[in-house]
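Hi Y.,

Following your request, here is the sequence exactly as I used it, all 328 residues.
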Amino acid sequence: MNALAARFNAIFGADMAGPLAALAAVLVVFGFASPHFLTGATFGSVAFQLPELGVLTLAMLMPILTGGLNLAITFTANIAGLTLAWTLQANGGIDAGPGAFLLGSLLALAFGAASGLVMGLVIAFTRAHPILVSLSMMIFLRGLGEFLTRGGDISGFPTFIAPIGHGSILGIPVPLLILIACVIASHVLLSRSKLGFSTYMIGSNIESARYSGINTRKVLVLVYMLSGVMAAVAGIIMLARFNSVRVGHGESYLLITVLACFLGGINPFGGFGRVLPVFVALIVLQLLSSGLNLLGANQHLTTAVWGILLIVVMVLRWFSAKFIRIVK
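Below is the corresponding structure, written out as C-alpha cells. Let me know if you'd prefer a different format.
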C-alpha cells in the first residue's frame, strides 16, 4: 500500500489524491442515482458552464498562495465586461467590427490590471490585510457599476462575439479552450517562473522571503495585477456567454472559487498548492451541480451542498494531518 501511494504521489502529486477521490465519488454516486448523468449531454453542459467559474478561480488562486485573498474578482470581471460593452456600444453596437472588440478587450484587460494594481499597492506598502483591501475594492466597484448602469443590463453585441461563449472547435467548446489556456499559463507561471517561486516564498513566510532578497512589494503588486487580468478574461467570457453585462453577474461564484481552491489542496494560509488539482476540483463542483439538477434539486440546494462540502473538506484535512502525525 505504501509503495502504491508513493508511486501515485510521484506521478500525480500528493495533493491530487483528494480531488481525484472526490471526482470518482461524484461519478459513481450520480451515475447510479440518475441514468442521464454519465452522458454526453451532461459533460457537454459542464464544458460550457465551467469556464467562467474556472477563470475566476484562477484569479483567486494566486492571491491565496501569497496568504491573501481577492474578494473583488467578480465585480472586476463585471466592470471589465462593462468596459468592453461600452466600447462596442460607442462603435456601433451590434454593427461594431472586430477592431472595436479588440480595443474593448484590451481596455477590459487594462481595467482588470488597474484594479489589481491599486489593491496590490495598498497591500504591499501599507500592509493592510488583503481581505479588508479587496473588500473595499469590491464595494467600490459594485457601487460604481450600479451608478453607471443604474442597475440595468447592457446588451446588443455583434454576432461574431457569440462563438466565444457558445462556439466549438473540433467539438471542444471555445470557452473551455480559453480556460485550458489559462490553466496552462497559470501552471507554467507558478511552477517555472521566478514570480511563481517568489509567490510561494511569500505565502510560506513573507519576512523570510524579504530577507532572502525577494522584492516582496513588487511580487504582491504583480500577483494582484495578474489576478485582475484573469478576472477581466472571465468578464469577457461572461459577456459572450450571456450576450449581456450586468454588475451582479456571477456574484455567487465568489465563495465557490474559494471552495474550489481549498478542495484542490491550496493552503488557506498560502505557500502551498498547485493549479492542476484545483482544475480537477472545479470539474468535481460542476459535476456535482449538474448531478443535483438532474435529480430535481434547485440552485439553492446546490449552494448549500457546496457549503457543507467546504466544511467536510476542512474536517478531512484535520483528520489527515492528525493521522500523518500519529504515523510519524
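The chain has a mean pLDDT of 86.

Thanks again,
Q.
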